[in-house]
# Entry
Amino acid sequence: MSDKSATTRLPPGWTGTAPDADAIFAMAEAALETLPAVFKPHIRDVVIEIAEFADDETLASLDIEHPYDLTGLYEGRPLTERSIDHSGGMPDRVTLYRIPILVEWIEGGERLDWLVRHVLIHEIGHHFGFSDDDMHALEDMA
# Structure
């Protein structure tokens, strides 16, 4: 006999195998919905992408030696550094790196949707120019 209550706690899109990029993206979208309404207008144009790993150029620019050490990346100009003169540029982007997230999930034992949420909120915090302490407070609010 199966325990149906166990399946209700699995992340959306999880089929028993390693979640694919679409499943991780669905978890990220669900996490965005949990953010306080005051933040939503400011992130609506931030592009969320899922990649397997960061490329060598990205890792080198961050002085990161191993691709498993980077779970997410914000690319853009934080809101705190913008002025009226900044327009017409590329949209800000948050990339979540699927394989490193899955490895951290396996090693850490927390729920995958919570881990995706944590990485996403941390990277969105950079969009707002938040410190690490600010990001922890935001995560507690969401």
In short: DSSP finds seven helices and three strands in the chain. The first helix runs from residue 4 to 7.
